[in-house]
Amino acid sequence: PLLRSGDTVTINYLLDLMITRSDNSAANCLIDIAGRKNINATMLANGWKGSEVTRKFLSRKLEDQGYDTIRGTETNARHAAEFMYKVQTNQLINPWVSMQMKALLARQLDHSKLAQGLPANTMFSHKTGWWSFYTHDVGIVEEEKLKYVIAVFTPVKEDQLNDRLKLLAQKIHAMLAQRDQNK
């Protein structure tokens, strides 16, 4: 069920909701728990300037003082891909954090974008979503010996993508699988 005021849940549950269902209430709780300054110090330490957490995912009138007039939180495909690479190579904070994050990403419930174009035996640990006229999907693809990170951010509404992300994932996967065979 959706989170309600007064609910008591674990941090793991909040992370799961944020990743698997894109639950903004869970994300906002995690921002409060971790603290924007701590989150942003990690972002900057990894070279992800511009991807700091500036605002929560709620109306400006409900935002904390000092954050109610600044730009919204945003990121880009490069930073998202680097994040996933650090998860895959156990470099995000430390190996334990990386493995926990990958396990959460593997439970993603939305398979409507890139996941559609990957072979059935492929593990895709990813975060997907949409906002206004943006649609994105970023994750770690693993199939036998083939492993790679893919990040796609589009300025296209989700309902207007048709099967383009599916087709893109099929083409990328086929190209990398062919390259792997030619080694």
Short characterization:
The model has no long low-confidence stretch (mean pLDDT 93). Strand 1 (123-131) and strand 2 (134-143) form a beta hairpin. With 183 residues, this protein is α+β, with helices and mostly antiparallel strands.
The beta-strand count equals: 3
Shape type: globular
What separation lies between the terminal Cα atoms?
49 Å
Strand order of the largest sheet: 1-2-3
Mean pLDDT value: 93
Q: Major β-sheet, in short?
A: 3 strands, antiparallel
> Which regions are unreliable across 5 or more consecutive residues at pLDDT < 50?
none
How many H/I helical runs?
6
The helicity comes to 25-40%
Structural class: alpha+beta
Question: Can you walk through the features of this model?
Answer:
The protein has 183 residues and is of the alpha+beta class. Helix content is 40%, strand content 15%. It has helices at residues 11-20, 24-34, 36-45, 77-88, 95-106, 164-181, and strands spanning 123-131, 134-143, 146-154. The longest helix is centred in the last third of the chain and has 18 residues, at 164-181. The chain is globular, with a radius of gyration of 17 Å.
Name the features.
183 residues, alpha+beta, three-stranded antiparallel sheet, 6 helices, 3 strands, 15% strand
